[in-house]
Fold:
Amino acid sequence: VSDGTETVRLEAFASLQDHERGMLEAVAGPAIRLARGKTLRPEGERDPQLYLLASGWAASTIRSPAGSRQLLKIHMPGDMMGLPSLAYHEAVDTIVALTPIVVHSFPSAAIGAMFASHPRIAALLFLISQEERTMLADRVAAMGRAGAVQRVAALILQLHARVMRHDPATGDSFHVPIRQAELADLAGITTVHVNRVLQELRARELVHWSRQTITILDQPGLRALAGLPERTMVSEPDWLPDRSAA
Amino acid sequence: VSDGTETVRLEAFASLQDHERGMLEAVAGPAIRLARGKTLRPEGERDPQLYLLASGWAASTIRSPAGSRQLLKIHMPGDMMGLPSLAYHEAVDTIVALTPIVVHSFPSAAIGAMFASHPRIAALLFLISQEERTMLADRVAAMGRAGAVQRVAALILQLHARVMRHDPATGDSFHVPIRQAELADLAGITTVHVNRVLQELRARELVHWSRQTITILDQPGLRALAGLPERTMVSEPDWLPDRSAA
DNA sequence: CGACTTCTTGAGGAGACTCAAGGGTGGTGG
DNA sequence: CCACCACCCTTGAGTCTCCTCAAGAAGTCG
Structure:
């Protein structure tokens, strides 16, 4: 993978060995560049591929029964994109660029080979998938019962946490290349209503969202409002296959 | 695992070899029996375990920010339960019995060992996780934009599909041990409203839900209403690690 | 045959939606 | 350097879905 400084997201759970990282780089395809707003691959495409986001932000979206789009996940550099579609013949989600992006594709066959030859990476990929499922579960819970203000509060906190994962020095004010229309599709409300919700969060002195810059004014208050569960991720589970395994 | 006739859900993707099945049976714990309504393990429990549901129906639930419960998934015999919690120190979801159930626990360490020694099973587990993530994604999309009637219609079709997976001979009328309160927590609406929605579906001659028996009256009409995407699952991907791998 | 759970019905209210128009902001080209 | 245009954000008014609260009917189990 071209950019040596990039952090592959697998390291969220356990850092990679040199030979493991080398294996990932060996199977990665050439860099693909995409302008903001462009679709990397549409929902329904046959024989979907896997992608690693090298730089920029992207999003996975899915079409809702009503026809509008639902944003499932924001992808940041180092994220693997397209894992869920591995279980299907057609791509499950559409991947669009939120900023100009650079991605590398992976052949599905490489994943199979990886399960045989690099069980530790496979297990880490597996754990990441469990984490993503959990984040979706939280979204389902929030969308089922929580009001729009709570949902948006939760999304802002989750964005903050994810941005901090990439840059631990992030303070209470940070940039996100997300427009209100996208926040709306993320929260499952209309753009118009998102706007009113943001104004309410501002009036309650919890968050200030302006020009793609989020400023968290009262983190405890925001947490209390969002009501997100506190969980601690396993970092390097002792049951992972041995690091030295070839 | 005690009951020889049970179908392990992994076979949804590719049938298991004898030695693979033997490995699963070897690490399974003793049978645990639970009465209807009892909690197998609560959300937040430390060092969560993995479980295989041998018989009966169960559900994974999560507490929503508003305090009410959200039903994430209905588990049927052969399902692995608790996979998402592997990525955390605390259990992510509560598992409750919808009927009297029998479960077997699995130590987490066995999963790690399995990635090293049985890559094919590991890859199948991985695929199942992707499928579950996709189902949650569909739920998010439905909850974000679809009305209550559509959501319930979609849930009924999904239940039908899953019951058919266990018993392909299932017709348009089938039994589900689910009360309206549970359907409400599944759809993210109130019990009162579920009742009215079911009446509407009945009035429109689409479905009849009575006494835990669902009768689909007009499947095409129901599908049109629900607007679920049509997807085909990979059955035995050619990129899976070799079946003969030890 | 009771006691409990589950389902059903009604009336009133709140949150979010739709439709529609106006105001900013940044980018591009003259 | 300014003018224009496209995109994004903001505001208002009216409507509808779904919720809340509350009570009563039916079903289920010992």
About this structure: Chain A touches chain B through 76 residues (CB under 8 Å).
